[in-house]
Amino acid sequence: VAKHEGLSSTKFYEHSYDDYAFEDQWFHMNLKQALEHNEFCMYYQPQVNIETMEVTGLEALIRWNHPSKGQISPQKFIPFAEVTGLIVPLGDWILRQAVEQILVLEHNGYDDVRISVNISPEQFKHPAFIDTLTAILSERSVSPSKLRLEITETMAIDHESAVIARLHKLDEMGVTVALDDFGTGYSSLKYLSLFPIHCLKIDRSFIDDITSNVKNEAIVRSIIDLADNLQLEVVAEGVESKEVLHHLQQLGNQTIQGYYFSKPMPTDQLLPWMESFAKS
Ligand code: C2E
Ligand code: MG
Ligand code: MG
Ligand code: MG
């Protein structure tokens, strides 16, 4: 029983080796099947420009609905998908879902809404990544500018020049890139100067207590200035309250993502939400 509880615990890396080995095996066996059995689905969370009060983007976030264990967090299963290599076919599936969702948005008149997709390092570094991405977009005649990739700087640790070359290729294609969890990496500034990127996503850990933590407030203020000087967009993630939103507004932040506007939603709730948001 204790071992099964490990699957739903958020801190499973602190478990004993036995628990780890058990979970490892469990994920190995179940992840591949999950893709075959269609147990994954995508949720979407709005990114709102608070000056115009328009939805400018949606972040695609994967969910796994296991038949007996219920919903399992991506924070838990993505690392296993990465070590097993399943992240490559799974990542392609995610990109296809996002592209279909872009078409749904276009058919409903949302022509200026971009979809952001999280890309794992292993997926990004795969030799076929750019070709696959190009094929997925062109098969459905979707403009590359409708897609944004969210990457983290950790992916450059071993393959810096290959990563930079790939980012330039994406830039040429017209696919924009956001640096996710910005501020939590180990050499953010170096990558800001080396990477051709378009957007910084300020990590939730700096945003949470911005109204009471003067250090985090100073950090966020500096990131907004930095982005402004580099002509990058900024998205503040994890905004849960009006107070935090107003504080960010005072600091000049334009784009907000967080529970304050909406939690990530399944596709059947997305269009109704967008419609009622536009009217409010
Ligand atoms: P991330 O890309 O930084 O995604 C943001 C996470 O913050 C999401 O968690 C989202 O639900 C959560 N979040 C958004 N607003 C708020 C808020 O106001 N308060 C709080 N407490 N949380 C908020 P989620 O969906 O559990 O995803 C966790 C991480 O798993 C993601 O972090 C990303 O690293 C990874 N992930 C999720 N979906 C995918 C995917 O399709 N592919 C890959 N490679 N990774 C994914
Ligand atoms: Mg993200
Ligand atoms: Mg993030
Ligand atoms: Mg993250």
From TrEMBL:
It comes from the Bacteria. Residues 24-278 form the EAL domain. This is Sensor domain-containing phosphodiesterase. It comes from Halobacillus locisalis. The lineage of its organism: Bacteria, Bacillati, Bacillota, Bacilli, Bacillales.
